[in-house]
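Action item from last meeting closed. Structure (155 res):
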């Protein structure tokens, strides 16, 4: 775990100032129990820029192991990674929230309070209601009208 974190800061390297910055894959838990992960952002083939408050997905097969995320759903493997805390430039590093209560910038594509949510069937940066047992569940709709979700993304 990283001690203290500037969650809206972005970096061009994962080890600025000889370790002063977070390292790729580092985790941070705040006093409210929300957990964050330090990741590398890739715009994907669709060149979809990140948006603070939108959903990130793991980039291609192995993205979770490489700590690489995208907002280009077509370049993901439909595994929700977390919620962007800032706009991260292509090839740069920053924080996503992976656990706890979060408020999204963009409304969900469908659903109601209490629904299990997945990237499958959604659009770039958002989630949809899970329809199949094979869907990856990465959040639960808490208050859909307020765009609030409970995150349960893989580390």
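Sequence:
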């Amino acid at each position: 775990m990283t001690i203290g974190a500037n969650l809206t800061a972005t970096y061009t390297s994962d080890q600025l100032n000889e370790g002063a910055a977070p390292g790729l894959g580092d985790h941070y838990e705040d006093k409210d129990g929300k957990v964050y992960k330090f990741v590398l952002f890739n715009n994907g083939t669709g060149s979809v820029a990140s948006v603070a408050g939108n959903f990130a997905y793991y980039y291609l097969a192995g993205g979770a192991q490489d700590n690489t995320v995208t907002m280009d759903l077509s370049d993901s493997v439909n595994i929700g990674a977390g919620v962007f805390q800032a706009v991260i430039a292509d090839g740069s590093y920053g924080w996503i929230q992976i656990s706890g209560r979060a408020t999204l910038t963009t409304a969900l594509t469908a659903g109601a309070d209490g629904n299990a949510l997945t990237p499958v069937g959604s659009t770039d940066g958002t989630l949809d209601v899970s329809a199949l047992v094979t869907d990856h569940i990465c959040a639960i709709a808490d208050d859909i009208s307020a765009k609030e979700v409970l995150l349960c993304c893989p580390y």
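Note appended to the action item: The two ends are 12 Å apart (CA to CA).
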